[in-house]
Design goal:
The complex is a heterodimer.
Chain A lengths: L1 H10 L18 H37 L5 H6 L3 E2 L4 E2 L2 H32 L2 H16 L2 H20 L9 H25 L3 H9 L4 H12 L1 H17 L2 H6 L17 H10 L7 H31 L5
Chain B lengths: L11 E12 L2 E12 L3 E5 L6 H7 L10 E9 L2 E2 L7 H7 E4 L10 H11 L6 H14 L3 H4 L12 H14 L4 E5 L7 H14 L4 E5 L3 H7 L2 E7 L5 E8 H6 L4 H7 L5
Parallel strand pairs in B: 3-8, 3-9, 6-7, 7-8
Antiparallel strand pairs in B: 1-2, 1-4, 4-5, 9-10
Helix pairs in contact in B: 3-6, 4-6, 6-7
The chains are: A mainly alpha, B alpha/beta.
Chain lengths: ~325, ~270
Amino acid sequence: MADQARARAESIGVSIPTEATVDLSKRPHIGETIIQAILFICGVLSIFTTVGIVWVLFQQAWLFFGDPEVSVLEFFTTFRWVPEIGLFGVWPLVTATFMTSLIGMLVAIPFGLAAAIYLSEYASDRVRSVVKPLLEILAGVPTVVYGYFALGFITPLLRNIFGINTVNIYNMASAGIAMGILILPLIASLSEDALSAVPQSLRNASFGLGATRLETAIRVVLPAAASGLVAAFIIGISRAVGETMIVALAAGAGPNLTANPFDSAETITGHIARISGGDISYGSIQYTSIFALGLLLFVITLGLNILSRRLVARFREVYE
Amino acid sequence: MTTYDIDSSNANAIEARDMSIYYGAFRAVNKVSLAIEKNKITAFIGPSGCGKSTVLRSFNRMNDLVPTARTEGEIVFRGKNLYAPDVDPVEVRRRIGMVFQKANPFPKSIYENIAYGPRINGWRGTKAEMDELVERSLRGAALWDDVKDKLQQSGLSLSGGQQQRLCIARALATQPEVILMDEPCSALDPISTLKIEELMFELRQRYTIIIVTHNMQQASRASDYTAFFLMNSERAGELVEYGTTEQIFHNPKDERTEQYISGRFG
């Protein structure tokens, strides 16, 4: 029977594979292999770059802390940073960094979150399609522009409001506000993603119980998105801590231990930028000191990222 | 169009009059008129896309949340047109509750899931009164015995059927008069489905229930009245026939109803 059927099928031009013609053996896929190799190299390259940066930071910081003139204890427990006379207390730089970042976040979080709630819960599709790209343009403005915006607009404004004698021409408040405006689109965009990810079914449940849009946004959507929001805020803080150009231009040159936001003070990044831009000699203690500062900055940012992961895991309201 | 008025001697809970619903330029529902009797279960049946869910959602103005949706006609509830300009949809939804196709408890504790509705509606009672309301609502949804020892656990820790009953309890907590159920059992196993149906029979004493279902057997065994919807040649949903469930399933007047009931299409 089978042979007859086969003969008939072949007579009309159809070939039926016999067992011998089925080949399931492995075949080389050269294109596939090459692509895989290229992708692997790209991945490895970025890891090597990171490792290389960390290695240089550690190596130079090791030279710094190995210098008989400095000690780790002095670095963390004294309060004056004057490399020219061998004083390496890091606190003035750290407090200035935290102060500008804090002011930045005080601007960026409320406005960014409000913008995100508006975009995700209130805006029509048309409004959203116009406003979101505009926000992203704001994020694309070079930071040097924000720096001069702080110097040329925010500082005079602050001096008008609080008085010329109160507000230094270089001050942390001005730099912090500009930084907040810089980070606002980032916070808004990330927060909007987190809010939009909350399933529509939860909003419907809330509306179905007679909740208004505001009640739904605040009591259902925000808590459900909390983990994503916290992550967005911490990414914002990391960005603020690492921001350089604005603080270098507007916050002032020269470490200064002060709690007054209207004083000038230099942040870690601002100091690194100024010192590395000057004529310090390679291998000098001033040179290695900026790597120690870089390492500290790296540790702070890394710590923030780890913290954000922890918080995301803890706050998570799983909604599926 | 004929207005199907079941029995004028009984009070109607809610009534649609010439209700047409549009999404943009598309007419999804064409001139539906029907009166829903109080303290009864009314089932909406029909093939996918026949507009039965859309009609259901128009009863508590959930369609308002779709930006392009627009309505013509009236929904009359307690002598008032719910689409009158001075009516607040938020107030409507307090009195006409809704249970959705997929159980959607909030990612909060069981207790907070129930307390949410009363709280947003200006609850002014004590903690003890809230405890009592939560218990009463959970008992009402036949869920109390299952969850009384774990009220602080997440609503999402419950099984699918329990989650759906939690959603029913949540709807009961705002003390609505009408409860709309949009295919509440479509994601549940047969045993959970049966529990929900038994629950509906109990709830009928105090509430009016309208249920959309794809399941013929469910409509035939769990409802008092049945409305059959079908889309017309322009793909707009229309009410074909409305009557007691007994009559619709055993003695349909319209040929299309008979064909649908006997499984010849849809």
